[in-house]
Amino acid sequence: MPKNKKEKKPKMQNITINIPEIYDENIQKLIKMKITASRSEAIRIAIREFLHTEYDNLKILGYFDSTGQNKNQ
Predict the structure, then answer these.
(1) 3-state DSSP call for residue 24?
(2) What digits encode the pLDDT tens for the residues 37-55?
(3) For 3-39, how does the pLDDT look when each residue is reduced to its tens digit (9 = 90+)?
(4) Based on the structure, what is the number of domains in the chain?
(5) Vertex 25, ends 16 and 18: CA angle to 5°?
(6) Does 31 fall in a domain?
(7) pTM metric for this prediction
(8) Residue 28: domain span
(9) Is 71 a member of any domain?
(10) Is the distance from CB of 31 to CB of 39 less than 8 angstroms?
(11) Does residue 44 lie in a domain region?
(12) Which residues contact 21 (CB under 8 A, 6 or more apart)?
């Protein structure tokens, strides 16, 4: 969420995904418990955490140099 009025929200891309029914049921429980506001928000959080984890793993494995650039390019 923007910290001030001048800061812009990131542009969103609309995509369609298929997830197991149990995932959706559990997301709906989180929404009812007010842990997340919507399915979209829950999925954005999950993707963000996945990307951070994978990026950190690749850094540990030496795929990025000290500036964060991919060594394989």
Answers:
(1) helix
(2) 999 999 999 999 999 999 8
(3) 566 778 889 999 999 999 999 999 999 999 999 999 9
(4) 1
(5) 20
(6) yes
(7) 0.72
(8) 21-60
(9) no
(10) yes
(11) yes
(12) none
